[in-house]
Amino acid sequence: MNRRSGAPAAASAPGGAATDTVRRYRSWAAAVILLLILPHVPGLDSSFGRSMLSQMGIAAVFALSYNLLLGQTGLLSFGHAVYFGLGAYAAIHLMRAINGGLPLPMPFVPLAGAAGGLAVGLVFGAVTTRRAGVVFALISLGVGELVFAAMRMLQGFSGGEEGITADRSHGPRLFGLDFTSQLQVYYLIAFWALVAAALMHFFMRTPVGRMCNAVRDNPERAEFIGYSAQRVRFTAFAVAAMFAGLAGGLHAINYEIVAAEAVGAARSGTVLLMVYIGGVSNFIGAILGAITITWLQVSLSDYTAAWQLYLGLFFMAIVLFAPGGLAGLIMMHAPLLRTAAFPGLLRAYAVALAPAVVMLAGAIMLLEINYRLSTQPEAGARITLLHVSLDAASPWPWLVAALLLGAGFLAFRRTWPGVTAAWQRATDEAGTGGTP
Amino acid sequence: MTLPLPSASALQLTDVHKSFGATKIIRGVSLAIAKGERHAIIGPNGAGKSTLFNLISGRFAPTRGSIRLDGEEVGGSAPYRISRRGLARSFQVTNIFPRMSVYENIRCSALWALGHRYNFWRSIDRLHDARERADEVLARIRMTARRDTLAGVLTYAEQRALEIGITIAGDAQVILLDEPTAGMSRSETEATVELIRTVSQGKTLVIVEHDMGVVFGLADRISVLVYGEIIATDAPDRVRENAAVQAAYLGTLPDA
């Protein structure tokens, strides 16, 4: 093989392919080890921690499947939960059959979810992928509402809002697993999540996966190189529905109950948030988004009843100020790590962080006082925020909050030029462009 | 009617019409382009040159008339069906895959022609023929050094070169180029003409071009399209002497 001068080592060059493969195997091996030890890490080794990790695993598969649709193929769906939920129903019905004597071990149940998601995806996909863009988005919204209404009506199949239940510990055992402990459930979810992630990662590297990118970028040109854009979209849709169904199957095992909300618009919205916050069309980003949102859902709801409000604000901030999501932020900083100007950038961030925290504290105080007074007026005007007791009937908490917000904002504005300057120095040194 | 007619024509248009609403853009074009011929279509702005390309490549369906590719009717077929029959085209306005690398742009454009179709069970990196084809086309369009650059951030001239790369990657037998040198400098134009000459070797080429130097240097035959009708089809020298053509162009054709 002759070496081309001037060509950087590329993934597809013969030499590059080998190191790339090694690097890929190394990261998958690291993922396996991480998934093995996570439930034993102090802080996560409780039943609560393991339950949260299980939810993160389910969310990650769901978000990756959505990323296949939105990030890789450019299909914005408002109804992806349909395939998650119907997959979950397929799985819970299989679990009930196993409870009734079907000789199948529980670890195979998620496959029923995948099959259910795929079957429904093939049917709805044939109709909805005829068009992309706004039309596709609107049809997906319609399908979502339709299926949600159907699940509330078909009580016998879905159990409606109450849902239907099954018992994951009652059935033939594989390797003696009885799934009475959350740790066993976690490992089952981790196993399937890893398999699903690897398969989705592989799918994107196949000819049809690459054509998904091509159709996302320019569906018209894709047709002039021999591919039917609709057929490519349909393929991506069916695959995404299958993995959403697999996530639904994991959901069925984790909760042992599936209700109509599993196919609902709220779940479709949440997966959109996850992928956007993590970083659209970024594989790691989808996982990061799933982890972050699940963590916020689980932990923030312990601190405040208004947690969804904060989630919404967080989402808006990301979309406005970091369109590349969390993964985009990381990738922006990666090339700067080795520059001499990087410590300066960190210092500038720290300086800007202090007034930002003050500003945020003021905003949170105002939000919390308002939220309490408007949603629970009967609970009185005494509010405890982070162990500080406030009397919302007096003007003082309001004044203090407004002062914190205003002063924090003004100070933050004064520190920001320092951040931009430090950023400029670091990017100049690294030879990359962009703005923070 | 459905039987393919015995014909040496790579491309045969018979009485092709195209109207948008009440506006007639193409008004009865008949044209036979032989296999291996380099054929240029010239004409003033708005004559319908790009519309003619869009009809041949399947972007629009003709209002009436017949378009035969290698003897088989393709008028009104979807672009991907026409592409699969061995016709590739480039666009006047650059039409690439902006968020993919230059290399991936080319490799994707070769996939169907190499028979990989909707394959989802093999890694694209293991398809050696696609890799080799992409490397070869990259070298031809002199973009090897830019292989990992995102296509969307290339300069205009580089995007034009990539546009041709995408068009030739599938090794189609009939190539349609829509103003390949538009907006290029003198030296870029010369390099592009050289490239077109090599890649159209042994193939059928139809080119729409405003640069008369390029047209007369490259084409075996020239068709002149004016207001949706072909007023002349002939060898370059004869076209230059044609009175009707001179009237339409008012003496802007280069001297011999």
Description:
The complex is a heterodimer of chains A (436) and B (256). Chain A is 71% helix and 3% strand. Chain A has 436 residues and is mostly helical. The radius of gyration of chain A is 24 Å and the shape is globular. In chain B, 33% of the residues lie in helices and 24% in strands. Chain B has helices spanning 49-57, 79-84, 102-111, 128-140, 156-168, 186-199, 212-218, 236-241, 243-249; strands spanning 9-20, 23-34, 38-42, 64-69, 72-73, 87-89, 174-178, 204-208, 221-226, 229-234. A six-stranded mixed β-sheet of chain B has the order 6-7-8-3-9-10, with helices on both faces. Chain B has a four-stranded antiparallel β-sheet with strand order 2-1-4-5, with helices on one face. In chain B, α3 (102-111) runs parallel beside α5 (156-168). The longest helix of chain B has 14 residues, at 186-199. The radius of gyration of chain B is 18 Å and the shape is globular. Chains A and B meet through α8, α9 and α10 of A and α2, α3 and α4 of B.
Helix content range of chain A: over 70%
Order of helices and strands of chain A: HHHHHHEHHHHEHHHHHEEH
The fourth-level CATH homologous superfamily of one domain in chain B is: P-loop containing nucleotide triphosphate hydrolases
Main interface by residue count: A-B, 36 and 46 residues
Q: Could you give the count of β-strands of chain B?
A: 10
Given as residue ranges, the uncertain stretches of chain B (5+ residues, pLDDT < 50) are: 1-6
How much of the sequence lies in strands of chain B comes to 15-25%
